[in-house]
Amino acid sequence: MTSKHSDAERANELRTRLADANYRYHVLDAPDIPDAEYDALMRELEAIEIAHPHLRTPDSPTQRVGAAPSREFGEVRHAIPMLSLANAFSDDEVQDFARRIRERLPGRELRFSVEPKFDGLAISLRYEDGVFVQGATRGDGETGEDVTANLRTIKAIPLRLRGSGWPRVLEVRGEVYMPRAGFEKYNTAARASGGKIKPLVNPRNAAAGSLRQLDPRITAKRPLAFFAYSVGEIEGAELPATHSATMRQLREWGFPVSDLVDTAAGVDGCLDYFRRIGARRDALPFDIDGVVYKVDDLAAQRELGFVGRTPRWAIAHKFPAQEQTTTVEAIDINIGRTGAATPVAKLAPVFVGGVTVTNATLHNADQVARLDVRAGDTVIVRRAGDVIPEVVSVVFDKRPAQTHAWKMPTHCPVCGSTIVRDEGEVVARCSGGLSCAAQRVQALFHFASRRAMDIDGLGERYIEDLCDLDYVHSVADLYKLTLDDLLEMKRRADERDGSTPETVKAGKIATKWAENLVEAIAQSKHTTLERFLYALGISDVGEATAKALARWFGGLDALMAATPDDLTQVPDVGPIMAAHIDTFFAEKHNREAIAQLRAAGVEWKESVPEREACGVLAGKTVVLTGTLVALTRDEAKARLEGLGAKVSGSVSKKTSFVVAGAEAGSKLDKAQELGIEVWDESRLAEFLRAQA
Ligand code: JCF
Question: What distance in angstroms lies between residue 117's CA and the mean position of ligand 1's atoms?
Answer without folding.
Answer: 7
